[in-house]
Fold each of these.
Amino acid sequence: QVQLVESGGGLVQAGGSLRLSCAASGIIFSTNIMAWYRQAPGKQRELVAAVSGDGNTNYAESVKGRFTISRDNAMNTVSLQMNNLNPEDTAIYYCNAKNLFGRSVWGQGTQVTVSS
């Protein structure tokens, strides 16, 4: 079965931290680009962070220095460590896997709410 299962979302105060995790199954995980996207109310879905199979990463400018994406190919998981959160980080966060053919699989989304 092809699926991405996310965990770790929730409510946190400004300045706090959360760690999101995504477990993948039914894909050749090591060759997929894994990424986290988010969509805030009234805004377009945006790329937050991505990591290639060999560990290369890229981040949205708004999260550089605060968020870290990592993957464990042996465990078929990708994580997003989010530090120094602010209310502007409030959004639904989605896990995404893109294979060598450019086809994507999406997780169900998990809500992250940051209060002031």
Amino acid sequence: QVQLLESGGGLVQTGGSLRLSCAASDCTFSRDVMGWFRQAPGKEREFVAAITWSGGTTTYADSMKGRFTISRDNAKNTVYLHLNSLKPEDTAVYYCAASRTYSYDFGTYDCWGQGTQVTVSS
């Protein structure tokens, strides 16, 4: 069941940027952690970044540090993922999710969006 709403994906050239947005819903009221994951065709879903609503603590996958930035706007109940210096290997469906546990493991996230496609052309 889709409970979050992502937007902002699209087609971009190598080196370009995108900003993904995730609008919160009822399921996030009891979940302090928001995460972004991605899944490329034929690959497993992988952790990208996470942030807490309460303190803004952030964590990134090592391969994305310095290029991607997660942020939140509590007043708008929205979490963002800023993607910079994009590479073709960043092509994937990007999902936001919510969890009660601060974790890299997608299995601990139980509130998900439908995903937004990011395609990076070479």
Amino acid sequence: QVQLVESGGGLVQAGGSLRLSCAASGRTFTNYVMAWFRQAPGKEREFVAAITWSGNRRYSQEVVKGRFTISRDNAKNTVYLQMNSLKPEDTAVYYCAVDEYKGLLRTNSYDFWGQGTQVTVSS
């Protein structure tokens, strides 16, 4: 079993920044992908960004628009999401996800999920 714990969410004014963290524990993977998703009230979960063990990245440009950066520390089994220039529409619960690498940086079909961390951006 893989356990994921997100942290770093909170309340921030528009234009501000937050850095989310997700620490993985339990089962280890030889090669795995860690990703961020988000879900706003009344909307379906959407993909934000993903990163492989080797550092290959994929972003949802529609969501990120050049404002977010995903990174990871393999020694700590931790993935980060640096979010800058936040907007009210970024308000959502942000979820960490992990899966064994299957050849693609998928925007869905992840096997393991955290409980989420709330991000609220005020006008």
